[in-house]
Amino acid sequence: MTISRLLSIIVFSLMFYGCAAPYKPVPEGYTGSIAYVEDTYSHKQTSTAHFYELAMVNGRHIESSWGATRSRNYGRGREFDPVMVKRRLPAEPLEVTIQAYQFFSTDFESMIGDNYLLQHTFNFTPKANEEYRVKGDVLWLRTSVWLEDSNGEKVEGSFLSLEAIDRKEKLKTDKEKRRKEKKEKKLKQNSSI
Fold first, then answer.
1. Where are the beta strands (DSSP E) in the chain?
2. Which of 4, 6, 53, 96 is in Cβ range 3.0-4.6 Å of 39 for a Cys bridge?
């Protein structure tokens, strides 16, 4: 296994394990209009499936179907039943990140298999009472992800599809962007002290 592959597995794992208390986009006491976004899956096999999920809202990690599935199926070995999370969102302008990837039911398979991860961040204003679903395709040559409304129509700006080589480059660019933003945020915090 290459170093870059091992690092991507560690980063991917930390993405899901790192949030002890995930962000809740609809705070307690919120009285405004809400919409719903549900994760989906496809191509379920004995120990893998393709997951399509809402990963972040306004740059903050939220509850994941990956974590819910791993938690609910703990101790079952390779066997698993997908657990798809459905979330409430305020019907107001948001920055959301959706992702498509191959889910593995065991840590060992995660270390040796390619998860084909693709993340896409875009601005989105959900309609009140609308039910959206994250959809996609996970293929070895290409990964795609998008958000659909209740009529099966793609939400404008939500579609992203990348070939394998471009997907790897996007992951690298996104990682560098997050590192830069984190560094700038830290510098601002330090300068305000």
1. 34-38, 40-42, 48-57, 60-61, 86-90, 94-104, 118-124, 131-138, 142-148, 160-163
2. 53
What domain count does the chain have? 1
Which of 32, 141, 37 is closest to 86 using CA atoms?
A: 37
Rounded CA-CA distance 55/191 in Å is: 31
Instruction: Quote the tokens at residue 53.
Output: 């999920």
**Residue 181 within a domain:** no
Q: What is the pTM of this model?
A: 0.74
Is 184 within a domain? no
pLDDT (tens digit, 9 = 90+) per residue, 142-178? 899 999 999 999 999 999 888 866 766 777 777 788 8
In tens, the pLDDT along 36-56 reads: 999 999 999 988 999 999 999
Residue 188 lies in a domain: no
Residue 187 forms part of a structural domain: no
Phi, psi of 188 (to 5 degrees): -65, -40
Joined together, the tokens standing for residue 72 give: 């609910």
| CA-closest candidate to residue 80, choices 43, 115, 44 | 44
Domain that holds residue 107: 3-164
